Amino acid sequence: MPRQKSDQMTPLELEIMQVLWEKGPANVQTVQKELKRELAYTTVQTMLTVLHRKKRVKRILKDKAYIYRPAVSRNKFTGQALREFVDRVFGGSAEGLVVSLLQEKQLTPERLKALHELLDKEEANDKN
Questions:
Q1: Residue 27: which residues within 8 A CB-CB, separation 6 or more?
Q2: Whole-angstrom Cα distance, residue 88 to residue 5?
Q3: In 1-128, which residue ranges form alpha helices assigned H by DSSP?
Q4: Residue 82 above 90 pLDDT?
Q5: Residue 4 has pLDDT above 50, yes or no
Q6: Per-residue model confidence as pLDDT tens digits over 85-124
């Protein structure tokens, strides 16, 4: 079943999630300070409420202020987002993604070597 548009994260929602993933639980003011762009307090507060409604963050009331924390880990989110992207753009072909990265010169020889080493390590772990 395709995801509803309201369930997907906007770029601003993702920026806010990045702050929470990097800094840990935080109130609105802390998130506002850590963002790379200047936003009004009420804008950040509204976005955190939206993320809470989407079940992307959890919140608890502490000293009259909500403390927000991610409801999903960065690894889980990126894995899911990457699978959806590969399905949508490359018809589910991870190889298509890698070929595109190679053609666009996004993978340097050094990065490819590091990936080969990582694959070898994962393969060795799978055998154990």
A1: 65, 66, 67, 68
A2: 14
A3: 11-23, 28-34, 41-53, 74-90, 94-103, 109-127
A4: yes
A5: no
A6: 999 999 999 999 988 988 888 888 888 899 899 999 988 8
Residues 14 and 123: their CA atoms lie apart, in Å, by 32
Q: Cα torsion at 40, 43, 49, 52 (round to 10°)?
A: -90
Instruction: Report d(CA 110, CA 89) in Å as an integer.
Output: 26
pTM: 0.75
Q: Please, what's the b/e burial string for 39-52 (b: 16 or more CB within 10 A of its CB; e: otherwise)?
A: beeeebbebbebbe
Handedness of CA 82, 9, 36, 76 (dihedral sign): negative
**40, two tokens:** 């009004």
14: Cα within 13 Å, side-chain hemisphere:
8
3-state secondary structure of 9: coil
